[in-house]
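re the bet — no i am not wrong, look at it urself. input seq straight from the record:
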Amino acid sequence: MHTLKRIPTKSIAFIAVSVALNVVCAWITVPYFTVPFTMSTFGIFFTLYFLGAKKGTLAILIYILLGLVGVPVFSGFKSGIPALAGATGGYILGFLASGVAYFLFDRKNKPLRIFGLFVGLILCYAAGTLWFVFVYGRNGKAISFYTALTLCVFPFVLFDVAKISLSVIVSDLLKKYHPFLKL
């Protein structure tokens, strides 16, 4: 008979807090022409770096599932299938791709872990931009991949690099000065 592995209460609490952090980060929004500036990348990459690949990806999956079932967790308090099927839904799904890719880099080697966050960001950009191009094409408005990058990625790169850097710094400080936060 197969027994279920118990998840420690502390891990469940950290996953829940990470989901909440991602919700709040998505709600911190500055409207922009096509894709809003949000703190989502900070929340997602903090979650991955702080919790690790397995728990971090689970937290991201829970966040996306909450939005899918109608809880307004995405930017602009959006939710449901329309939010994921819309032009920017690929970026949300790209967060999950970032988590899955992070499994390859989540080791004791800090530079490798940080590199993994940047690989995740590139995957998020790729998934989101491809989806953006697809949705625009589906709506009869053809748009090139380069144009989509110009609208949806290039204006965000420096900010996202800063948010990833901040997520690493905050995570390291929390673990250093608050030992009870170590998983």
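see?? The mean pLDDT is 91. told u. also The radius of gyration is 17 Å. so pay up
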